[in-house]
Amino acid sequence: MQSSGTVAPIFQLEGVSCRFGAVAALTDCSLSILPGERVALIGPSGAGKSTLLSLLNGSQVPTVGRVAIMGLEINRLGTRKRRRMQRLVGTVYQQHHLVGNLAVIHNVNAGQLGRWPLPLALWSLVWPQGVQRAAEALAQVGIADKLYARTDRLSGGQQQRVALARVLVQDPAAILADEPISSVDPERSRAMMDLLRQLSETTGKTLVISLHEVEFAVKYCDRIVGLRQGQIFFDAPATEVSKAMMTDLYEL
User: Fold this and answer.
1) What is the DSSP letter of 107?
2) 8 A C-beta contact, residue 65 and residue 17
3) Which of 10, 64, 100, 106 gets the highest tally of CB atoms within 10 A of its CB?
4) What percent of the chain shows pLDDT beyond 70?
């Protein structure tokens, strides 16, 4: 975690509200995240965690307020510039969005699609390109031997690692992870959180993770942002988050 002061934030939200019809997903949220920070978003279901992540990766624009990624206001960018900006933010989704009947290398190379011209991307489906980079990314996530394996023959945990390798090939400045350990056993949860923290430490990439598991948020992240009913309930260093704060956050 880097200290504040002269370091410009990688993400900045000012007075952000986000509505879907009559539903207020987020209301008057302000948040600043610095390069290299590991931030956990926690809170009850429906608190606005996934909406906040979608604002941070530029796939959603606010109804009110300002969202800036690396100093550029996302809702003022044209389509092409916004896509270029979105390539600087990698997202690991709950649903991995992998093509099961393709080899792992093709799913990993999907992280190159914003960078490769269409003919190269199509040719790569016949004769895989970027093999060394894909192999390096798979080695980083601990499944170097699965480069040419058929993706739907991997375990759920291995498929999750393929999705993460795809983000590493994209080489973003920040990695967002939406509930990466929901509905997996404790051992796999620890392994994935160990991996995400290790990648953040070795690459210096910013990491923002939405979590239901409070104990993992405290153990693996520098900072915890508690969301409740679409508002930021607290924003504090992990070491300063008390049981009373957690109880209040989840109180019905």
Assistant:
1) H
2) yes
3) 10
4) 98
Q: What is the DSSP letter of 211?
A: -
Mean pLDDT of 114-120: 79
Rounded to whole angstroms, the Cα distance separating 132 from 140 reads 12
Strands 231-237, 89-92: pairing kind: unpaired
Chain centre to alpha carbon of residue 4: 22
- Strand ranges inside the chain, DSSP E: 11-20, 23-33, 38-42, 64-69, 72-73, 89-92, 174-178, 206-210, 223-228, 231-237
Q: Given a cut of 50, is residue 3 above it in pLDDT?
A: no
Q: How many CB atoms lie within 10 A of CB 65?
A: 19
Q: Pairing relation of β-strands 11-20 and 64-69?
A: antiparallel
DSSP-derived 3-state class of residue 1: coil
Instruction: Look at residue 252 in the predicted model and tell me its pLDDT.
Output: 60
Cα within 13 Å of Cα(162), Cβ side: 30
Parse the chain into domains and list their residue ranges. 1-88+172-252, 92-170
- Rounded CA-CA distance 94/217 in Å is 17
- Determine the residue type at 50: S
What whole-number distance in Å separates Cα of residue 94 and Cα of residue 102? Answer: 20
**CATH topology classification for 1-88+172-252:** Rossmann fold (3.40.50)
